[in-house]
Amino acid sequence: MAEYRTCTVDRKPAEVAVIGAGAAGLYTALCVARAGGAVTLVSATPLAGASSYWAQGGLAAALAGGDSAELHLRDTLTAGRGAVRESAARVLVQEAPDAVSDLIGLGVNFDVERSGELSLGLEGGHSQRRIVHAGGAATGRRIIRQLSAVAAQHPGIEVIERRSVVRILTDADGHVTALKLDDGAVIDAPAIVVATGGAAAMWARTTNPAGAIGGGLVLAHYAGARLADLELMQFHPTAVVGDNGADGFLVTEAVRGEGAHLLDDHGQRFVDELAPRDEVARAVQQRIDGGGGRSVGLDMRHVDPALFPNVVGALKRAGIDPEHELIPVAPAAHYMMGGIATDLHGRASVPGLYAVGECSCTGLHGANRLASNSLSECFVFGARAAAATLTDTAAGGRPGPVADDAPLPKPTLSPESRAALWQHAGLERDAAGLGMLLDDEHPLVRLIARAALARRESRGAHQRTDYPALDPAMDRRHVTLTDDDQPVIETWD
Prior knowledge:
30% of the residues lie in helices and 17% in strands. The chain has twelve helices and 21 strands. The termini are far apart.
């Protein structure tokens, strides 16, 4: 790995500032820099330490001869349960193949067949093999390592590691103007891209690393940005259950694509393992509740372990031998489909503010994300946001002086808050439980509860026991929240 150049000055100007060095942040920074822009990339962790590093899924792209963007679109719309913003989905499916090609050009080595063609996997909700991996389940690791190395060497990118952004500063007109770091340093920038990842670690049971607690959403919220679809947290159906150090470890959906089965206490299959995730997760939880246990069994004994060396190795280190025994699994919070509301070029509601990746919400994922669309989203919309930052900055000039740089309250996420989210905003929720979250000490917990209360129906990842039916009037509707206003339900084109 290359040695990273870090910026240590107290105040510096940048054309574009990017918060977060996961897949979305790194790629957005590289797209800006390759177009000639000056970028400052701020990472709370060392490069190659972001949450994307742990991503086991791949990139969804219609690359096979019998596949097409229209088929990929159909699968995305079906999985999203009537809540997908079709224009965003069309952008993704049409531009994902080019994103794969660009990553190859940047040095990412995707898995290939003996023929030399890309190896394409199958995951839940996809009608075709269209998932591109790098090192099998090590896709996130491979991509982050390579993009980090390229970014570290690019002369147009300054990297600030191990620093956190504590506030996005705006001028009197509400235009972003700078970032404030935890050591008091300020980065002046007329364009700021938030790429901080999701919030699934806010729930007590999660597949995510501890830092995935919606920090970027809180920053954007305090800067005045609209948030959307916060009630739509996807629960992954196959996270390990156990007191062996592997609790919450995600067993990638790709193992089910290669034939792994879910079995109940009687050794019987009880669900189509390749159905969309919301359906599989609910079936797993219902079988657990009905049997009074903690888990069901994932059977990958007949799956070639060479296809998933990282998964097999991690399980064996935890004392589980997937070649000879069932893996105990249960649902866990996995992916935030909501986030900072943006247009199809990453623009948030605050001028000069952009969001990319899991912290953003274009409406692409609807009420149930289609597997592996999320990594593709990082690159497709990262490129679009990068182009928009440079175009908008050139057209609009620089913002005015900072209106207020007083420190913001730093929210703390207590174990009690995480347990309350799991209990009251888990796979099933109702008004009584959600109402209890409205008094939580964490602002994002309160916003999640407000959004979930506003969606009075059951759809995809959002299941209300007091409103068990899907409401057709909520098709393609999104719950948005601003600073002090009540939730607004909108239709996005």
